[in-house]
Design goal:
Elements (H helix, E strand, L loop, with lengths): L1 E5 L5 E2 L6 E2 L9 E5 L9 E5 L4 E4 L1 E4 L16 E5 L2 E4 L2
Parallel strand pairs: 1-4, 2-5, 4-7, 5-8, 6-9
Antiparallel strand pairs: 1-3
């Protein structure tokens, strides 16, 4: 299994390799994805999977460390995942 982490701390497209560490788009049944980069500024960020796109991952973890406190903040300022396409979790 490979682990992919969102590295930018800003909003962006899931299917842009430069947004990930390693710089590869996570799209396999063995990909473990962590979205928890510290946000740049106070407004948080959104990771978007575009309409019509299809990506598969083994697991997806949001806000495990850096952004955990932001989840309870007002206004909300941690990471968010917006799925306009299809996100499939492997069995």
């Amino acid at each position: 299994m490979a682990t992919f982490t969102w590295t930018t701390g800003t909003s962006g497209d899931w299917n842009t390799a430069a947004n990930w560490g390693p710089a590869t788009i996570p799209n396999s049944g063995t990909a473990e994805v962590v979205i928890d980069a510290a946000p740049v500024g106070t407004n948080g960020y959104t990771v978007t999977i575009a309409n019509g796109a299809s990506d598969m991952v083994q697991s997806l973890t949001l806000n495990p460390t850096n952004n955990l406190l932001g989840v309870l903040a007002t206004p909300y300022n941690a990471a968010a995942l917006e799925v306009d396409g299809t996100l499939t979790f492997a069995p």
